[in-house]
Predict the structure.
Amino acid sequence: MPTAIDLFAGLGAWSTGARNTGIDVIWAANHWPVAVQWHSANHPDAIHICQDLHHADWSKVPAHDILLASPCCQGHSKARGKKSGNAQHDASRSTAWAVVSAAEFHRPEVVLVENVEEFTDWALYPAWSQAMAALGYMLAPHVVDCADLGVPQHRVRMFLVCTRSKAPLNLQLHQRRHVPASSFILHRFRCGQMEQGREAWSR
């Protein structure tokens, strides 16, 4: 079974997706104690650490086949980043360098990085991508809208597929029919009405 680690793990969506495809997530980290608490509950078999990954000792992280990472996106986002006058997010962009540091030490076959699509507009993205290339990775960016996966929400994210291969790995992602949120809300509303009707009838 392939193994993975999850950087900036949050509550565990990356890890859940990996587990659902037969990947064993063996280690996860986040700087926020609440996130680590919930990730531990959702993935009790993984080793967890609560730490600023700028200061991680990668020699203490188990070897793995796949590195999953969702570095801080606020500093890149149009809504909350520097272009919106939020200079406090400038430092958050540097979290992406933890991915390079981890990849340099362990050299997993695959590194998957999730962020907003503005990540590639970052002034230091050319240097970041060159650092990954220097480690032997080919980068293939994929912009994905959750609506294309059948989720009733437009939520666009970029996934960088970084592989130690001779050519970039460009995935052919199947697009599902868009599901309007109104259909989901109406369904829940009707279910609620039916439940209220059953309760009133039982009285």
User: Anything to note?
Assistant: The chain is about 30% helix and 20% strand. The chain has a mean pLDDT of 85.
